[in-house]
Amino acid sequence: MEILTTNVYDKQPKEPIYDRRKESEAFGKTRLGVKGLVDSGITRIPRMFHHPPETLFYYEKTENNDPNLEIPVIDMSMDHAKVVEQLRDASTKYGFFQVINHVVPVSHLDRLLDVVQAVHELPDEEKKRQYREDILASGPGFGFSSYHDLFEYMAASWCDTISVRLSPNPVDPMDIPEVCRNEVLEWDKEVTVLAERLGELLSEGLGLNSDKLKGTPLLERKGMVGHYYPQCPEPNKTIGTASHTDLGMFTILIQDMVGGLQVEYDGKWIDLKPVHGALVVNIGDLFQILSNDKYKSGAHRVYANPWEKPRVSIATFLSPPFEDENLYGPFEELTSPENPALYKQLKFSDMLEKFMARNASSMSMVDHFRL
Ligand code: OGA
Ligand code: NI
Question: What's the count of helices (H) and strands (E) in the chain, helices before strands?
Fold first, then answer.
């Protein structure tokens, strides 16, 4: 049992003495993630999930009261020039937008959310078999984990995740749990087409040829993660996902209607309100660099889910393969003597290295490469 003592002199409740490593190991050993804790009936969350007050955020504290600050919902069936312009404006201002009429049937998105939820709700024994300590490491192309130990400096977050490697070197379909296998394979095809299309439109938005990314490894890697944010018994003590930017070119996200995702703009956090059937797209760090800061890799985060219904979201990250040896820097067409390159040349693996070594100072990822 936790021992909380109060010092009469400073009125601050003292933190109980605890061993992060030990608690974290015990949690990992359950192989059942945060959902396992909820299922066990806990009413207080373990200390390892407590975030320091200065980095805490929660659902009551939204700053979204300015009607001019809304992440745009863009109808992809509008005429071409208009779509290009709206995608460009949103990528420049927020680095985030939602798209509707994106051609992927809404029923497929709903179904995918349902089956990803079903994987997280498989019987304990089956989930334990899928559990992996390190979800980012290569190895089997499918795994289930909780990000409790990914960044040791930081408290754990209230979220479990399944991870599927779509390309290159795709998962053996037989390694995908049957309950979601067909839907994941279908999504793989759909997201590939959609990513290519978005790559064209976003290239055009920069004034480049629409086929600028074609034939390059820039969108070759597709990694899919399916997050599950169960109701948190103490949502004001922890978070769902810490503030971060995504590393690669862009991310395509499906979210259910529960809500919780927030985007940073001008020092404020604004809610990204769920729109049924829409896909959320955000620019990643590498695309910001290639665009020479024309596009912005927007910081985002998710608050701990206070609601009874679990929140499910599915992110597909488009990037070069981790082992890509090419050097990248701002597109030449976008630089000139008056508009010099703002970044040095880098390999995608250099970015990965910085990402893995990031620490509490939370220096912006792209700033590591700024000239
Ligand atoms: C991510 C992410 C947001 C969400 O996986 O990188 O930001 O809504 N997910 O789960
Ligand atoms: Ni993200």
Answer: 8, 14
Q: What is the rounded distance in angstroms from the CA atom of residue 114 to the CA atom of residue 311? A: 11
Q: Which of 253, 271, 317, 358 to mutate to test the pocket of ligand 1 (most atoms within 8 A of CB)?
A: 253
List CB-based neighbours of ion ligand 2 within 5 Å. 246
Using only C-alpha atoms, what is the Rg of the chain?
Answer: 21
How far is it, in rounded angstroms, from Cα 89 to Cα 163?
31
The pTM of the full predicted model, rounded to 2 decimals, is 0.93
- What pLDDT digit, counting tens, does each position of 333-362 carry? 999 999 999 999 999 999 998 887 776 556
CATH number assigned to the domain covering 72-369:
2.60.120.330
Are 260 and 303 in contact by the 8 Å Cβ rule? The answer is: yes
Q: What is the pLDDT of residue 325?
A: 96
Contact 292, 331 (CB under 8 A): yes
Q: What are phi and psi of 13, to 5 degrees?
A: -65, 130
Q: Where are the domains of the chain?
A: 72-369
Measure 139 CA to ligand 2 centroid, in angstroms: 22
Query: Would you state the structure tokens that stand for residue 64, as one six-digit string?
Result: 């979204």
Residue 122 pLDDT more than 60? yes
Instruction: Return the half-sphere exposure (C-beta side, CA atoms, 13 A cut-off) of residue 222.
Output: 22
| Substitution candidate for ligand 1 out of 116, 135, 261, 301 with most atoms within 8 A of CB | 261
Which atom from ligand 1 is nearest to the alpha carbon of 251? Answer: 6
The residue contributing the CA closest to ligand 1 atom 5 is 315
Nearest one of 112, 97, 144 to 256, comparing CA atoms: 112
Alpha helices in the chain (DSSP H): 20-30, 33-39, 80-93, 106-120, 124-130, 178-205, 285-290, 348-356
pLDDT digits (tens, 9 = 90+) for 73-95: 999 999 999 999 999 999 999 99
Contact 47, 173 (CB under 8 A): no
Residues with C-beta less than 6 Å from any ligand 1 atom: 225, 227, 241, 246, 253, 255, 261, 300, 302, 313, 315
Q: Judge whether 201 and 87 are in contact, CB under 8 Å.
A: yes
- HSE, side-chain direction, 13 A CA sphere, residue 216: 20
